[in-house]
Amino acid sequence: MSESEIDAVVFDVLGTLVDEPAGIRAGIRALDPSLDDTGVERLLSLWQRYIDGEQRRILDGARPYVASDALDREAARLVADAAGVDDPTAVAALAVSGRRLPPWPDTAAGLARLAARFPLIGLSNASRTALLELNAHAGLRWHQALSAEDARSYKPDPAVYRLAVTVSGRPPERLLMVAAHAWDLRAAQGLGLRTAYVSRPVGDPPASSDRFDLYADDLADLADQLGRTDGLSG
To answer: Rounded distance, CA 146 to CA 167, Å?
Structure first.
């Protein structure tokens, strides 16, 4: 794929540009400093399973839509109960730990490099408020940041990806969706967007049956590939 084939780049945020587990893990350690690594990982897994499960229930129609802020508060209460912590201030701090996520080492430079050549759109399951704080904390550079809250749903609902298509004013095939999660790219692909998988330690690796347009080791590699006239496909 060459640079001339796309008009804008759409980025997943959580996991792709920031290390989401690291931020939640730090929040859990602050909640209960006495926890050992095994205890922290157990509570992190509890948090992740709860968020994933509740988002699936919303997508399946088993629960009315609520923004990610509400789910984070519920997850924080669940984790605090499991840890035996009942301090409301500590629980409230844990609930917003997902807004203080560290960027991957290549994120800032990679976004700056790509922003010089393309309009960049962030597309996240994080709420509007959470996304604002997350972007500011991690130093993410966007031309537009879109929250799934605007579609009152969560990825991989096609309605979320349509937000980026609508804002760009371009056909789906002129947009490149970048993510570290194969499930995210499959959903974008279903709507007609081009796709680029970026490898991250916390991502969802492609299956052997996946056929994305680009596969990159990091954002520098992605920018390099987009600059070639003989870019990868398939």
So the answer is: 9
Q: Radius of gyration (Cα) for the chain, nearest Å?
A: 18
Calpha distance 36→55 (Å, rounded): 29
pTM of the model: 0.94
| CA pair distance 101, 85, nearest whole angstrom | 23
Here the tokens at position 231 are 């870019």
**Cis omega before residue 156 (within 30°)?**
yes
Report how far residue 52's alpha carbon sits from residue 30's, in angstroms, rounded to the nearest whole number.
23
User: Hey, is 5 helix, strand or coil?
Assistant: helix
Backbone angles phi, psi at 223, to 5 degrees: -60, -40
φ and ψ at 77, to 5 degrees?
A: -65, -40
pLDDT digits (tens, 9 = 90+) for 34-64: 999 999 999 999 999 999 999 999 999 999 9
Helix (H) or strand (E) holding 117: none
Q: Residue 97 and residue 32: Cα distance in Å, rounded? A: 14
| Measured torsion, CA atoms of residues 139, 144, 149, 153, in degrees rounded to the nearest 10 | -110
Of the pLDDT bands very low, low, confident and very high (cuts 50, 70, 90), residue 232 is: very low
**Chain centroid offset of residue 190 CA:** 18
**Cα–Cα distance, 32 to 176 (Å, whole number):** 41
